Amino acid sequence: MTEHDPARGPEQRRQDATDQFEQEHDAWVTTASADDLPRLAPLSFVRGRDTLLPAARRANPTAVDVTPSGQVRVALGHTRDVVLVEATAEIVEGRDRPPIRGTPSP
Questions:
Q1: Whole-prediction pTM
Q2: Distance between CA atoms of 85 and 62, rounded to whole angstroms?
Q3: Cα dihedral angle (72, 17, 10, 31), rounded to 10 degrees?
Q4: What is the pLDDT of residues 17-28, one digit of tens each?
Q5: Is the pLDDT of residue 88 over 80?
Q6: Which among 2, 25, 4, 29 is positioned nearest to 81, based on CA atoms?
Q7: Which residues does 100 contact at the CB level (< 8 Å), separation at least 6?
Q8: Rounded CA separation 66/51 (Å)
Q9: How many whole angstroms separate alpha carbon 68 and alpha carbon 34?
C-alpha cells in the first residue's frame, strides 16, 4: 500500500499556492467559445500585484473567447497538487499593460 503525506491545512495550502504563482511562468488557461465549446491553452504569464497577465496573440482562440464573457479558469501545478483559479479576464494590449515588478511602462 502506498503511503501519502498528511493533508496540509488551509494556511499552508494558501502559502504553497502563492509560492507557485511567484515561481511559475506557465499555466493552462481554459475559456469557452461563443458556441460554449471549451478551449484549453498553455500560456506564459507574468504576475502583477493582484493580476496574472498571460501572453497570447489577439487572434489566438483563447484570447478571442475572453472578449464576450471574460470568464476564464487558470490551472497551475501538477495533477496531484493543482491550483485552480476562476477569474474574470479582460484584453490588455501590450502598449496598455500596467508595469510589472519594477519594469518600466512601454
A1: 0.70
A2: 16
A3: 10
A4: 888 888 888 889
A5: yes
A6: 4
A7: 46, 47, 48, 53
A8: 15
A9: 8
